[in-house]
Amino acid sequence: MWGRRAAAAGPAAAPAGDVPAAGGVVTAEAVRFAHGLSLLSGLDLSRRPRPAGRVLHLYGEHSQLVSRRHSLPDRPPRLRSLTVPGAGMRPQHDNPRFVERAVHSFLKEVAP
User: Fold this and answer.
1) Which of 17, 29, 80, 110 is least surrounded, with the fewest CB atoms within 10 Å of its CB?
2) Residue 99 belongs to domain spanning
3) How many CB atoms are located within 10 Å of the residue 74 CB?
């Protein structure tokens, strides 16, 4: 999976009027979300991936989509998985200082 890009296939690649509407109105956010999910269609994640490169995986403490069980094992310095305190599904928005420090620290660890 890590060696290839996810690509949408079929009609899901271009969301149409079947996107759920909020109050009868299809919002830009709903279209973007539906399109983003369609990109994940067909991925086989039944086996834990083994990335060849360096990975920093940040996920929000309160995320409803991603948790510790979805992350790669923490194997410093090459693989680092961190919970972003107080964050939800957009950790870089919810706790930018923590994310900035985590990225900076990770880059220092893996720099040649």
Assistant:
1) 17
2) 55-110
3) 11
32 and 65: one domain?
Answer: no
> Partners of 57 in the beta sheet?
81
| Sequence-distant (≥ 6) Cβ neighbours of residue 37 within 8 angstroms | none
Reading the chain (112 residues) residue by residue, the pLDDT tens digits are: 344 444 444 444 444 445 555 566 778 888 888 888 888 777 776 776 777 788 999 999 999 888 888 787 888 878 899 999 999 989 999 999 999 999 999 999 888 7
Strand, helix or coil for residue 56 = strand
Give the CA dihedral 73, 38, 13, 20, nearest 10 degrees.
Answer: -150
Q: Which two tokens stand for residue 92?
A: 């870089």
Assigned token pair, 45: 């994640």
